[in-house]
Each structure stands twice: as structure tokens, then as C-alpha cells.
Specification:
Layout: H1 14-33, H2 48-58, H3 63-94, H4 112-127, E1 128-129, E2 134-135, H5 140-149, H6 155-162, H7 168-180, H8 197-204, H9 240-252, H10 269-281, E3 284-286, E4 297-299, H11 304-316, H12 326-340, H13 346-364
Helix pairs in contact: 1-2, 1-3, 4-5, 4-12, 12-13
């Protein structure tokens, strides 16, 4: 008698997990440095552990050998993917799968500068060491980020395209109309909360997926953004323990009558649990497209699986927007402006960013 087992049975092996975690960033590095490679893996990174379920026994559970085999296998896989990319593209064309004419990946007024600013938020720790006052922008990752951002229109091109709109409301309405008609492939949601999950699902006609922006190290391409009033402690505070105790009290013990901000994730767990309980028990009436259709849709209570999926997503985010870094981001964008306009080559731009930010960090020490 033969018993067939899924490869997931062996994924829990400690060596398999360790080698797989090492290979995730190595795969991205290989994709950037291998000559002739034109594939940047993304979703496939999660399948690496399943590949090593069979490789590890062949290597007699030797982690070093498995790592070498993995590097060779993944490098070969990238070349294979590059080689058949044209075939896949042709198959998609023959299957009549194509972006509609005039369609965009993100909102139609997304510029190179905006994309670069967002990606800087998600990856600044890879290039800047605030404590040491050093930076490393002369890296493959930063170059790749600039090249990705340069695929979008320039700020001047966006301004020319949107000049006909009377105000911001007209632009927002145009963006929603394009999304409804299928001319926008991805939804650039700046704020995601448990209370907005049902609306996002309704907008997408099913369960929405939190893809995030591409990040070099394969981490979550999303970031926490603070809203409302913020409390901070100065580094020169004379009684830090008392200050921490005050902040702990404010942020963990809401007073009676504290308003529940439904557009954000509450900092108080008791209010979040209240939100969750309400959404899991009652139907909600929402308007998925308030600017163009104004149609009220009744949605069922959130299922436990949806809540768990949302919480897993939130717990996977390990970055937070720091207001103090905006000057740094603006400096980087200022230096990159000639590159985005086509007036300066990439190598020269990267060298200037390294020099200017290095001087900036030295002045801040």
C-alpha cells in the first residue's frame, strides 16, 4: 500500500525553514545581479519552503549543501522564467488577455515622484542608519527602486493630464469612474481599517487582497500611518519613566465616552474589540462608490476568517511612518528630480543622493 503525502508535511522541518528564510532575500539579490535575468520574483517567494521538502533529504539534511543546491536551482529557475516570459506573454495575447486601452496600474494621477516617496517610506531603513549617521544609497536595491518609479509618468505629465479638472473632487470622481469601468488595475488604499474591509470587498466584487508595494527584502509593502493627536517624549526628558507611565496610561486606559474613530484602527484594544464584535454580529449598509453611483449595498457580518486574515495582515506590518523623516525624503526626491525628468543618468543620481544625504546626516548628528 502506498500513501501519498502533501509536501506541506515536511515544511515544518527546522532546517527547511532556516534555509528557506535565507534564500528569500538571496533570491531577490540573484534577480538583481544575474546578467540577462528579466524576472523579479514576488508571489513565488512563499513557495520556496515547499521546494526544499525534497531537496533536503537528497542532501542528507545537510543545510550547507541544501543552500548551495537552492542557490543553483533558483538561479536556473530565474533564467528559465526569463526564457519563457515571451511565450507566456504570447499566450496571454492569444487568449485575448490585455489591459484595456488607456488603463493604468494605479490611480491615473500617480507620478514617479509619488511612487518614489511611498517606496522610500517602506525601505528607508535599508539605506539610512540614523544612529550612526551613515547611508548606503549606492546599492542595487535603491537603483532598482528608482528604475521602478521611473516607469510611471512624471509629475509634469500628471499635472498636464489633470489640468482640465476643476478641483480635487473632480479628480477623485474621475479616479473612481476609471476604477468602476476597469481602467485602474489596483486600488491604492491609503487607509485600511477593520471597518473598511467590507467596503473594500464590495468595491472589488469579492475578497480583496492586500498586495502592498514591491519591497526589495520581500517584506510587507505596507506601513502604519499615525492619525489624530500624537504624544512624544523628548530625549532630554528628565523623568523618562514617569513620561512612559503617563503614555502607557493614556494609550491603554480609555476614559468613558472616548469617541470610536471608525476610519482608523483604535489604539485601545477595548475599542477595537468593540468594533470587531459589532461587525461580526450585524449587517452593514455601505456605499462602495460614493462619488459615482451612490448605491447603498447591504453586506453580511464579517466572518471570523475575514477578521483573522485582516489581523494577520496588520501583524505582518513592521514599519511606521515617522514625521521627522519627511525632510530626508524630500531631499532625496529633490536630488532625484533630474533623473525622473530624463536630464541626469542613474549612476550620477545615485552618487549625488549618497553625497547629499551623507552631508545631511552628518549635520543632524
Amino acid at each position: 500500500m502506498y500513501i501519498g503525502l502533501d509536501s506541506a508535511v515536511g515544511v515544518g522541518n527546522p532546517t527547511t525553514l532556516a534555509i528557506s528564510l535565507i534564500l528569500v532575500p538571496l533570491t531577490l539579490v540573484l534577480a538583481l545581479i544575474l546578467p540577462g535575468n528579466k524576472v523579479l520574483p514576488f508571489g513565488d517567494l512563499a513557495s520556496i519552503p515547499y521546494m526544499f521538502v525534497l531537496i533536503l533529504p537528497l542532501c542528507k539534511n545537510n543545510g550547507f549543501r541544501a543552500l548551495i543546491v537552492g542557490i543553483v536551482s533558483l538561479a536556473s529557475g530565474l533564467y528559465f522564467a526569463t526564457d519563457i516570459a515571451a511565450l507566456h506573454t504570447q499566450m496571454a495575447i492569444e487568449a485575448s488577455f490585455a489591459m484595456p486601452e488607456g488603463a493604468t496600474l494605479l490611480q491615473f494621477d500617480a507620478s514617479r515622484e509619488m511612487i518614489a516617496y511611498i517606496l522610500m517610506h517602506l525601505s528607508v531603513e535599508n539605506y539610512v542608519d540614523q544612529e550612526a549617521g551613515t547611508c548606503s544609497f549606492d546599492s542595487p536595491g535603491f537603483r532598482s527602486m528608482l528604475e521602478f518609479a521611473s516607469r510611471f509618468p512624471t509629475q509634469k505629465e500628471v499635472e498636464a493630464e489633470t489640468a482640465a479638472f476643476a478641483d480635487d473632487f473632480a479628480k477623485w470622481k474621475e479616479a473612481e469612474e476609471r476604477f468602476v469601468s476597469g481602467l485602474q488595475m489596483l486600488d491604492n488604499s491609503q487607509y485600511v481599517a477593520l471597518t473598511s474591509l467590507q467596503k473594500l470587498n464590495a468595491r472589488h466584487g469579492g475578497r480583496c487582497a492586500f498586495i502592498g508595494y514591491p519591497v526589495e527584502d520581500g517584506s510587507t509593502g505596507s506601513i502604519f500611518r499615525l492619525t489624530g493627536q500624537c504624544i512624544a517624549m523628548s530625549s532630554t526628558c528628565e523623568n523618562k519613566e514617569a513620561a512612559w507611565e503617563f503614555m502607557r496610561t493614556v494609550y491603554t486606559e480609555p476614559k468613558d465616552g472616548t469617541p470610536d474613530n471608525n476610519s482608523a484602527i483604535p489604539i485601545w484594544k477595548v475599542l477595537y474589540d468593540k468594533q470587531k464584535d459589532t461587525l461580526m454580529r450585524t449587517e452593514q449598509e455601505i456605499v462602495p462608490f460614493p462619488l459615482t453611483q451612490q448605491q447603498i449595498v447591504t453586506v453580511p457580518p464579517l466572518a471570523e476568517e475575514e477578521v483573522r486574515r485582516f489581523e494577520d495582515f496588520i501583524n505582518s506590518i513592521d514599519k511606521i511612518e515617522l514625521i521627522g523623516e519627511r525632510d530626508l525624503f524630500n531631499l532625496v526626491l529633490e536630488v532625484c528630480a533630474p533623473y525622473f525628468s530624463g536630464d541626469k543618468p542613474l549612476d550620477e543620481t545615485v552618487a549625488l543622493v549618497q553625497n547629499r544625504v551623507g552631508l545631511y546626516l552628518s549635520e543632524q548628528k
